[in-house]
Amino acid sequence: MTDCVVLAYSGGLDTTVAIPYLKKMTGGEVIAVSIDLGQGGEDMESVRQRALGAGAVESIVVDAKDEFAEHYCLPTIKANGLYMKQYPLVSAISRPLIVKHLVQAAQEHGGTHVAHGCTGKGNDQVRFEVGFMNMDPDLKIIAPARDFAWTRDKAIAFAEENNVPIEQSAASPFSIDQNVWGRAVETGFLEDLWNPPTKDLYAYTEDPNLGNAPDELIISFESGVPVAIDGRRVSVLEAIEELNRRAGAQGVGRLDMVEDRLVGIKSREVYEAPGAVALITAHEALEDVTVERELARYKRLIDARWSEEVYDGLWYAPLKRSLDAFIESTQENVTGDIRLVLQAGRCVVNGRRSNHSLYDFNLATYDTGDTFDQTLSKGFVELHGLSSKIANRRDRDARNS
């Protein structure tokens, strides 16, 4: 049987050149699969035609924007998904969706191999390949950039030798990955940690120092799902897109961080995620009002662990599924409205309301009408500190003996 390679195709130089390269290397056919995740930019039909022009026997474009928003971004909102308390998993949550559609294409078209353009230094090789292993372990995996030292220079040389049309003038010094949830930028001069990002690096956000008037808005949630902005009903995708525009115009969502990669190295990454940051900020604020204290404390631990699982490419792993179930169970009462002020790169909560609120004004107030029985507090404090009081007394006695 002739080999058939299903390639995750972005339309850029590396994956375009990979089509004739994979054909030559395997002696088989190549099917290009491109996923529209709301990344914007080039028309997807142009991307499809470029793959065919490079020699793909089939070029498939999947409009997965709503699927991505509903089944990948929304769980990230509910989990307040931030790796290392900062990164909203922009690339990490897109990889399992790409894997899903590549495997489907392989099964529908008789694919024997799947291929991606990741290097051996990054996280994405793990996210892709562990995903393939989980969804269809019979598929063989090809990673030219990693396994055959496929560098950019080699890709250009191969293109010239084999008459593959490329646009070198459009080449960027950065490695960029983007979708509707955000934008990730690395390499180039950013690899020197002392170099600040330049203005031309950003595309989703305006300069936060422009002095724009503040933008105040209300995000409404139902069971953890953003359902309206300023009273207008929206889908999850529409909520992300509108907040990308409005929060992005205020410079919200810029991140410059050194993160711990799964492969054991530290890397400098610059992110733009205005909609993601606004939605997670609002969701966390509503949980503060509606989720009981002990559950909220434990959920914060689970949120961090969920983010690590997803970052580490374990979207389809048993632990991730169990964490999903726990997180979903916490969202029943996360219903209400959060008012945000967006300005100068900041996203500030200044209003909260919910019919499921656990905030009791009569217990919280210090004014007349206070119903909190302060006479109970003396005994509570004594009992709360009793065990540490006894332990410290023992330790003092031991030091003094």
Automatic annotation (TrEMBL):
<keyword id="KW-0028">Amino-acid biosynthesis</keyword>
<feature type="binding site">
    <location>
        <position position="259"/>
    </location>
    <ligand>
        <name>L-citrulline</name>
    </ligand>
</feature>
<feature type="binding site">
    <location>
        <position position="123"/>
    </location>
    <ligand>
        <name>L-citrulline</name>
    </ligand>
</feature>
<dbReference type="GO" id="GO:0004055">
    <property type="term" value="F:argininosuccinate synthase activity"/>
</dbReference>
<feature type="binding site">
    <location>
        <position position="124"/>
    </location>
    <ligand>
        <name>L-aspartate</name>
    </ligand>
</feature>
<dbReference type="InterPro" id="IPR018223">
    <property type="entry name" value="Arginosuc_synth_CS"/>
</dbReference>
<dbReference type="InterPro" id="IPR023434">
    <property type="entry name" value="Arginosuc_synth_type_1_subfam"/>
</dbReference>
<dbReference type="InterPro" id="IPR048268">
    <property type="entry name" value="Arginosuc_syn_C"/>
</dbReference>
<feature type="binding site">
    <location>
        <position position="87"/>
    </location>
    <ligand>
        <name>L-citrulline</name>
    </ligand>
</feature>
<feature type="binding site">
    <location>
        <position position="271"/>
    </location>
    <ligand>
        <name>L-citrulline</name>
    </ligand>
</feature>
<feature type="binding site">
    <location>
        <begin position="8"/>
        <end position="16"/>
    </location>
    <ligand>
        <name>ATP</name>
    </ligand>
</feature>
<keyword id="KW-0547">Nucleotide-binding</keyword>
<protein>
    <recommendedName>
        <fullName>Argininosuccinate synthase</fullName>
        <ecNumber>6.3.4.5</ecNumber>
    </recommendedName>
</protein>
<comment type="similarity">
    <text>Belongs to the argininosuccinate synthase family. Type 1 subfamily.</text>
</comment>
<keyword id="KW-0067">ATP-binding</keyword>
<feature type="binding site">
    <location>
        <position position="117"/>
    </location>
    <ligand>
        <name>ATP</name>
    </ligand>
</feature>
<dbReference type="GO" id="GO:0006526">
    <property type="term" value="P:L-arginine biosynthetic process"/>
</dbReference>
<feature type="binding site">
    <location>
        <position position="119"/>
    </location>
    <ligand>
        <name>L-aspartate</name>
    </ligand>
</feature>
<dbReference type="Pfam" id="PF20979">
    <property type="entry name" value="Arginosuc_syn_C"/>
</dbReference>
<dbReference type="InterPro" id="IPR014729">
    <property type="entry name" value="Rossmann-like_a/b/a_fold"/>
</dbReference>
<feature type="domain" description="Arginosuccinate synthase-like N-terminal">
    <location>
        <begin position="5"/>
        <end position="165"/>
    </location>
</feature>
<dbReference type="InterPro" id="IPR048267">
    <property type="entry name" value="Arginosuc_syn_N"/>
</dbReference>
<dbReference type="GO" id="GO:0005524">
    <property type="term" value="F:ATP binding"/>
</dbReference>
<feature type="domain" description="Arginosuccinate synthase C-terminal">
    <location>
        <begin position="174"/>
        <end position="390"/>
    </location>
</feature>
<feature type="binding site">
    <location>
        <position position="175"/>
    </location>
    <ligand>
        <name>L-citrulline</name>
    </ligand>
</feature>
<dbReference type="InterPro" id="IPR001518">
    <property type="entry name" value="Arginosuc_synth"/>
</dbReference>
<feature type="binding site">
    <location>
        <position position="127"/>
    </location>
    <ligand>
        <name>L-citrulline</name>
    </ligand>
</feature>
<dbReference type="Pfam" id="PF00764">
    <property type="entry name" value="Arginosuc_synth"/>
</dbReference>
<dbReference type="InterPro" id="IPR024074">
    <property type="entry name" value="AS_cat/multimer_dom_body"/>
</dbReference>
<dbReference type="GO" id="GO:0005737">
    <property type="term" value="C:cytoplasm"/>
</dbReference>
<comment type="subunit">
    <text>Homotetramer.</text>
</comment>
<dbReference type="GO" id="GO:0000050">
    <property type="term" value="P:urea cycle"/>
</dbReference>
<keyword id="KW-0055">Arginine biosynthesis</keyword>
<dbReference type="GO" id="GO:0000053">
    <property type="term" value="P:argininosuccinate metabolic process"/>
</dbReference>
<keyword id="KW-0963">Cytoplasm</keyword>
<comment type="pathway">
    <text>Amino-acid biosynthesis; L-arginine biosynthesis; L-arginine from L-ornithine and carbamoyl phosphate: step 2/3.</text>
</comment>
<feature type="binding site">
    <location>
        <position position="123"/>
    </location>
    <ligand>
        <name>L-aspartate</name>
    </ligand>
</feature>
<keyword id="KW-0436">Ligase</keyword>
